[in-house]
Amino acid sequence: MKKNNKTTYKYSIKPKPQLFNMLIGLLLLSFIISFVPNKSTYNLYSNLTTVPIDDDNEALEITDASAQLGKEKGKKNILFIGSDEGTVDTHGRSDSMILITIDRDNKKIKATSFMRDMLVTIPDFGEHNLNHAYAYGGAELLVKTFNYNFGLDIKDYVKVDFKTFIKIIDKLGGIDIDIQSNEVQVTNTYIRSINKFNKSSSSELSGAGLQTLNGVQALAYSRNRFVGSDYGRTNRQRKVLQAITTKFSHIDYVEIVKFLVDVLPEVTTTLNIAEISDLTAWAVINRVNTLQGTYLPKLEESQHIKTDEYHIVVNKEAFKKEVQNYIFYDR
């Protein structure tokens, strides 16, 4: 089992504003703690919910070929999971799945969204939509499912549920999003549903245009799958995550520390402090300030089938090669 190393590492590096613009969503919360002085770093990290994961390749469905690819290409893959625990859904599926790829050789970070309705093979459970894996076996089974179907080498994840998501947005004072006219009605429907489930009283959107969304409104906006289907939703999720990172770039150091103390207890990750510090130092030293975002599979490369539920169907072997080519080879 993977053990959590709580040794504190201190780097004589001053954080730069551009760092905040390239780290995505809640992964930023894990990375940023290494900027805090030693004692504070330990106190912050002790609030983070760290969990072990069986890092044996076979146990995580990582083939020798995939493990070798990751090692040769200098890539570190981390799965970001936004689960729908604590919202209108009671089954706890992974509503958002974004693969964060740390590319040390090319000094960049990729954020790749995977369609939750893609039909895959879930180890020990058979053929189901991708987001069912989290409901059946939690984050570790979802990691195994990614590795098994897409030929990846994932051993780490960062997870938040949507009550935490709402809290993050509200603690930031809201985020600025340009709402399109065809998004207003559906977003308001989601707002009413979330209000009912969470016993909250968020106001609805009054119309389209650039506006500051609170936590409930931002969650409702990012969950909208009826305008542009799941492809439109993943695009909205990336817009929200970008808005979060942009908001961070305007927060001073003291406020960041206060924010982290309040939010970190609700973030779950397999990353330990040594790994977090190492990744942060790499990003700052190399001035990595770009984020390459996309989604897979592409609309034109898949079939959309509705039986008892909605499925996105791909040629599995061809898609596995496509994922590996993009993640490992930048093709």
TrEMBL record:
List the transmembrane segments: 20-37
Entry-linked InterPro entries: LytR/CpsA/Psr_CW_biosynth (IPR050922), LytR_CpsA_psr (IPR004474)
Q: Which family does it belong to?
A: Belongs to the LytR/CpsA/Psr (LCP) family.
> Which superkingdom does the taxonomy of this entry point to?
Bacteria
Identify the NCBIfam families for this entry.
lytR_cpsA_psr (TIGR00350)
The record's section on PANTHER family has:
POLYISOPRENYL-TEICHOIC ACID--PEPTIDOGLYCAN TEICHOIC ACID TRANSFERASE TAGU
What keywords tag this UniProt record? Answer: Membrane, Transmembrane, Transmembrane helix
Q: Do the record's keywords include Transmembrane?
A: yes
Which part of the chain is the Cell envelope-related transcriptional attenuator domain? 93-248
What this protein is called in its record is Transcriptional attenuator, LytR family
Answer whether the UniProt record assigns the keyword Transmembrane to this protein.
Answer: yes
